[in-house]
Specification:
about 375 residues; alpha/beta; 3-stranded mixed beta sheet; 13 helices
């Protein structure tokens, strides 16, 4: 058991080194020419969220040409009226309405996304959700700036920009865990992207060129078939399939974040979580092995530490305690750095609790990650 404990500790420390924050390059100055951008939002029965969040998207300060395209996917609430009212105040808002009776080529949100990508004016698309708002008026500038910097260096490549999607800060254990896990997930997928293995992004803050995505859906039957088979995970599938080595750029400036409405009931959060993780089985094999090694070593580390505390002699217990404190200190320092970068507040004291909760719920989520993919969007 002691050998298992030491091996898993070593693996955990190696991942801590990989996940340590290394910074992002600055975006171009405001004086340079910025690309045209279409902000794309898909929503179904989101009238309340459109009224609350969409004006913040429409008030972006951006020097380039841009538009906001909202795909209203067969809503039966007041979405149409709300969107038309907003359009009177914000002429750059474009509305695409899908009839509820439409026979869909792709399941869930994917059909609305496909329709929106086809009708965007600009090739560069910034995705967000109906229940999201930008962290500031320069959200679009920072995301487009990260793309522009990469494009200036390698004009022949198509780039993805991976942004951070935060959640509203509220009271309660669930809120702390959701926000802690959101930081934790961002640490993982951006760290893998920086070493050339992008495997996911979040659709509430993701930028890419639409033509390669549309071409893949229309010309690559393997990708189109996979897109049809899964009801969710469009952002993960697109990034993992198309963002080849070095084609993903990370933008972690606080003003480049979005802030989403947060689930306040455990049952609602669990339903959302099981839907989101269902595309994990389609990641690249190397990434899946790495993520499994990280999660598995974390679980075995805490399990073996507990076993040694309960059964070992006092000298071993002291050694284990010192090493547990070492691992805790290393990860606490790692998290604190990311919290500062992403402007996440009041999470420092929760890091250890979040770590332990995450290890436990991974066991319960495993069947959803590897087998379940049938949940619908709405």
């Amino acid at each position: 058991m002691l050998i298992l404990f030491l091996i898993t500790l070593l693996i955990q420390l190696l991942f801590a080194w990989r996940y340590y924050y290394r910074g992002s390059e600055p975006v171009p100055s405001t004086g340079c020419t910025m690309p045209g951008v279409s902000i794309l939002i898909c929503g179904k029965n989101e009238a309340q969220h459109f009224r609350r969040f969409l004006p913040q998207v429409l008030r972006q300060s951006y020097a380039g040409t841009w538009e906001v395209v909202v795909v209203n996917d067969g809503s039966t609430d007041d979405s149409v009226a709300v969107l038309q009212e907003l359009q009177q105040d914000f002429p750059r808002l474009r509305i695409i309405t899908i009839d509820p009776a439409t026979e869909k080529t792709f399941p869930g949100k994917k059909y609305a996304l496909w329709q929106g990508l086809q009708q965007c004016t600009h090739d560069l698309v910034l995705l967000t959700d109906a229940d999201c708002m930008p962290a500031g008026k320069d959200w679009l500038y920072h995301m487009a700036g990260a793309y522009q910097r990469a494009k200036q260096q390698e004009p022949q490549r198509s780039f993805f920009v991976l942004g951070y999607g935060a959640y509203e800060q509220k009271a309660g254990l669930l809120n702390k865990f959701i926000r802690w896990e959101t930081v934790h997930i961002f640490i993982q997928y951006t760290s893998w992207a920086r070493v050339g293995h992008p495997y996911m992004g979040v659709g509430r803050n993701l930028m890419y060129e639409r033509k390669p995505v549309l071409a893949a859906l229309e010309q690559d039957e393997d990708f189109a078939s996979l897109f049809r088979r899964t009801a969710s995970g469009d952002d993960d599938l697109i990034v993992s399939w198309l963002a080849l080595r070095q084609n993903a750029v990370v933008m972690d400036h606080p003003e480049a974040s979005t802030i989403s409405a947060v689930k306040e009931e455990w049952a609602d959060w669990w339903k959302q979580k099981t839907r989101h993780v269902s595309s994990g089985k389609y990641y690249d094999d190397k990434v899946k092995r790495g993520l499994a090694a990280y999660a598995g070593s974390g679980f075995l580390f805490w399990l073996s530490a507990l076993a040694l505390f309960l059964s070992a002699d006092p000298k071993i217990q002291i050694i284990v305690l010192i090493l547990v404190l070492l691992r805790t200190a290393v990860y606490s320092a790692l998290y604190r750095k990311w919290y500062r970068v992403l402007n996440e507040k009041r999470l420092n004291a929760f890091s250890l609790a979040g770590d332990l909760m995450w290890v436990g719920y991974n066991i319960v989520l495993a069947p959803y990650i590897f087998f379940k993919n049938k949940q619908q969007w709405k």
